[in-house]
Amino acid sequence: MFIFLTLLWIIFNGRFTPEILVFGLIISAAVCLFMVKFFGYSFKKELLVLKILPDLFIYVIILLVEIIKANFAVMKLIIFKAKSIEPTVVHFHTGLKTKAARVLLANSITLTPGTITSSLHEDEFFVHCLDKHLSVGISDSVFVKRLRKMEEKL
User: Fold this and answer.
1) CA distance 68 to 115
2) Would you tell me the crossing angle of helices 99-111 and 53-80 to the nearest 10 degrees?
3) What letter does residue 140 receive in the DSSP assignment?
4) Do strands 124-129 and 115-121 pair parallel, antiparallel, or not at all (unpaired)?
5) pTM metric for this prediction
6) What pLDDT sits at residue 41?
7) Strand, coil or helix: what is 128?
């Protein structure tokens, strides 16, 4: 985070001089110390995030692929079965341990067309699906499997 903040400082200044670098280092150190003291930030947590960074990158790619596939499924549903759409609400538990993983899953479900996470409480998800066919396998989706793998690494 310290390096990121320093680089951000230099980029936003638009030029590189020794004074800007020294001042950026001081400001970045102050911000990092503030984050450690008041926001529960830890350098160990940052190293853990770096450990799962490749998995996060793969997760984003999977999310984009699933969004594209869901777009086509919703288009097909609207064009060909407009009168036989059966909305449904699915209730399931995932077994995800961390709050961050559960929120990431809820947001991923909501970003995917045809589904909206309507409620998330602890490990309990309520998801509204545009059609009952879109709800098949949602409780053990590729998102859940990938997030479980990432939690195991942490």
Assistant:
1) 13
2) 30
3) G
4) antiparallel
5) 0.74
6) 78
7) strand
> In degrees rounded to 5, what are phi and psi of residue 35?
-65, -40
* Token output for 107: 């947001």
Q: How far apart are CA 85 and CA 2, in angstroms?
A: 52
Which residue from 58, 43, 42 is spatially nearest to 149, judged by alpha carbons?
A: 58
pLDDT digits (tens, 9 = 90+) for 92-116: 998 899 898 999 999 999 999 999 9
Q: Six-digit token pair at 54?
A: 């490749």
Distance CA 52, CA 39 (A): 22
Name the strands in the sheet holding 115-121, side by side, starting at the edge strand that comes first in the sequence. 88-93, 124-129, 115-121
| Cα distance between residue 101 and residue 122, in whole Å | 11
DSSP-based three-state secondary structure for 19: helix
Q: Which helix (H) or strand (E) holds 120?
A: strand 115-121
Q: Are 113 and 74 in contact (CB under 8 A)?
A: yes
